[in-house]
Design goal:
- The structure holds two protein chains of two kinds.
- By secondary structure, chain A is mainly β.
- Helix content of chain A is about 0%, strand content about 55%.
- Chain A is built from no helices and eleven strands.
- In chain A, the strands form two sheets. In chain A, strands 2, 4, 5, 9, 10 and 11 form a six-stranded mixed sheet that branches. In chain A, strands 1-3-8-7-6 form a five-stranded antiparallel sheet, with no helix packed on it.
- By secondary structure, chain B is mostly beta strands.
- In chain B, about 0% of the residues lie in helices and about 50% in strands.
- Chain B contains no helices and eleven strands.
- Chain B is globular, with a radius of gyration of 14 Å.
- The mean pLDDT of chain B is about 95.
- The chains are: A mainly beta, B mainly beta.
- At the A-B interface, β5 and β9 of A face β5 and β10 of B.
Chain lengths: ~110, ~120
């Protein structure tokens, strides 16, 4: 059973377009992390959100944690080919255990 | 350079032949963990270790063993591999378990792609 549902599973867009990736759960998390994974490499942490309603920005990436701390979104403005990758969300439950979503594969073509 | 290394990166083996995947980190991290990644299922934790000689099961521990005799190393052992263990494996480490310091970053190794025929 997947506790964290990510949508869409796959997203293909043109350079310059915007995109949003969603991460939803019926569980409440202490914090939520977003990672990006490129082919042949391990996931790399992008951001951690902790407070319900929190919004964090990382250049063209905007991360939001839902008020109830059950969901999160990642918005990319003016996507570039370098944004291509597998985006994973991970919710922190009890004892610091991370539960990962299945990921959203983003492809940005020039 | 701070990093987590895994070896081998690729491995093809046959059912029943014992194998070990090594993991080493040079960041003096307390917490280490093994995950497997399968399409549509995301990363699932196999085993984790809070410190030397302290290990515990994750979500999918069946068929795997681990040991933590030194702080920097956390090998994953498959005593009798089976085809359903074909997967992409990641080792990860963090300074402390996630629940102790909220914004702990987990560092992942580059992955080991294992095929069991």
């Amino acid at each position: 059973t997947q506790l964290l549902e990510q949508s869409p599973q796959f997203l293909s867009i043109q350079e310059g377009e915007n995109l949003t990736v969603y991460c939803n759960s019926s569980s409440v998390f202490s914090s939520l992390q977003w990672y990006r994974q490129e082919p042949g490499e391990g996931p790399v942490l992008l951001v951690t959100v902790v407070t319900g309603g929190e919004v964090k920005k990382l250049k063209r990436l905007t991360f939001q944690f839902g008020d109830a701390r059950k969901d999160s979104s990642l918005h990319i403005t003016a996507a570039q080919p370098g944004d291509t990758g597998l985006y994973l969300c991970a919710g922190e439950g009890s004892w610091g255990k991370l539960q990962f979503g299945a990921g959203t594969q983003v492809v940005v073509t020039p | 350079e701070a990093q987590v290394t895994q070896n081998p990166r690729y491995l093809i083996t046959v059912t029943g032949k014992k194998l070990t995947v090594t993991c080493s980190q040079n960041m003096n991290h307390e917490y280490m963990s093994w995950y497997r990644q399968d399409p549509g299922l995301g990363l699932r934790q196999i085993y984790y270790s809070m410190n030397v000689e302290v290990t515990d099961k994750g979500d999918v521990p069946e068929g795997y063993k681990v040991s933590r005799k030194e702080k920097r190393n956390f090998p994953l052992i498959l005593e009798s591999p089976s085809p359903n263990q074909t997967s992409l494996y990641f080792c990860a480490s963090s300074l402390l378990p996630q629940g102790i310091v909220r914004t702990q970053e987990q560092y992942f190794g580059p992955g080991t792609r294992l095929t069991v025929t």
